[in-house]
Fold:
Amino acid sequence: MADNHNEGAKFLKSVHQYFDNAAKFSNLAPGILEQIKACNSVYKVSFPIEIDGKIEVVEGIRVQHSHHKLPSKGGIRFSMQVDEDEVKALATLMTFKCAVVDVPFGGAKGGVKINPRTSSVKTLEKVTRRYAAELIKKNLIGPGMDVPAPDYGTGSREMAWIADTYQALKYGETNALGCVTGKPVGQGGIRGRAEATGLGVYFGIREALADRELLEGKNLDGDTMQGKRIIVQGLGNVGYHAAYFCQQDGALIVGIAEREGGIYNENGIDVKEAFKHRSETGSILDFKDSKNIENSLDLLETECDILIPAALENQININNAAKVKAKIIAEGANGPVTQEAEEILLQNGIIILPDLYLNAGGVTVSYFEWLKNLSNVRFGRMGKRAEEASYRRLVNAIETATGKSMNTQEKAMLIHGSDEIDLVRSGLEDTMINAYHEIRETMRKKNISDMRTAAFLTAIEKIGVSYEALGIFP
Ligand code: NAD
Structure:
């Protein structure tokens, strides 16, 4: 696992530096801080897979950064760039991300060195199942142990293969489906998981835009999404949904950067159409009414209100940070800004909505999915009809008292009881809003000027309490 070693090492160094910056503000004992920072376990596997008649050795890794709460939780990445330090950095971020949004899990991450774009579905299935089996046989994943989810290069299909492999090897285990999240709805998944991270990014940006104190002097009119010019890097799961929900709320997506190039249109790009165009033609380029941008990195330096990096880590670094013109950087991806770049961006007055808060929507809804799997019942199933009956009584009472009857549409809207998707979205919105204000409160209390340090500190303090409560450090 050496190809991407420099990038992985840089990423881990940035995450540690972010931790150290925040730890300075904490009163926890140095030993506890050391423990909170340390990576608890790393497990590497190599296994043979037959690909096109040839045996190839595939490498995989699972890192559990923290066991302060169980299970640990974190996605699985499929990429030829997977590297031990990169996975450690991502697992570390997961620990703090879960704490920021009060998801009671430790942090973990996994990776497999395989290119999902050039591998056949058959190969991907073999690799996913074998990687899962390697972890299951060591008891490294399971509903109470460590629960993977999708990440870069994986999705619900891979999660379904993992759940199926787990069920086959742990036949009869009642909570088996809770061994992995991000599954298709028909196979134990939850409605709203696919778009959760992007929707969470939208909620976080919306909260920041309404925060007059944060935006003071930033030259951003109004306090809503309306007319804000957004550039997004990466039109995958996170980037697509984040851009889509912002656009639905009135933002203009003026630029989209992808691996093959980018597109720009100052009047706004229809995100859904652009996604369709890329799926059909294999490229984002040549989209109607938009200008092609040959080097998509140029879009990171293009004038806009909000830049959403939603592809990979280290995208905004020492080489381009000074040229970034966005007013807000909304980190959809994990680690898109290096620590050196952050210093420059903050000096230039750019607001950074940090990954460990902003992209926590995925793990939040994963937590809901895990709860659903443990309880073996769909959210809303027990209460929906009872809720509707009581709303109906209320509507009847209003009609009787006023002597006026409502039309069918009004009645249907008022009487509607909560379905699973309503509950998931409500839980996600509430989580993103609460976490935002907790971070802002830490900024005020500790006189911290940037959101990342405050988010890390908020998380460190919560984790510290749980170590003290466990009595690990008498
Ligand atoms: P994805 O595979 O669905 O999408 C990634 C997109 O980025 C793809 O469209 C890809 O073509 C594009 N891309 C790759 N290299 C690029 C480059 N150099 N320039 C521009 N675009 C490029 O992955 P995802 O799940 O959306 O994850 C993206 C990021 O978000 C990762 O950092 C991941 O760790 C993070 N994240 C994902 C989730 C989730 O729920 N999926 C949750 C939290 C964080």
Residues 25 and 446 are 7 Å apart (CA to CA). The two ends are 39 Å apart (CA to CA). Residues 420-446 form the longest helix (27 residues). Residues 150-153, 197, 233-239, 257-259, 296, 310-312, 332-334, 359, 362 surround nicotinamide-adenine-dinucleotide (CB under 6 Å).
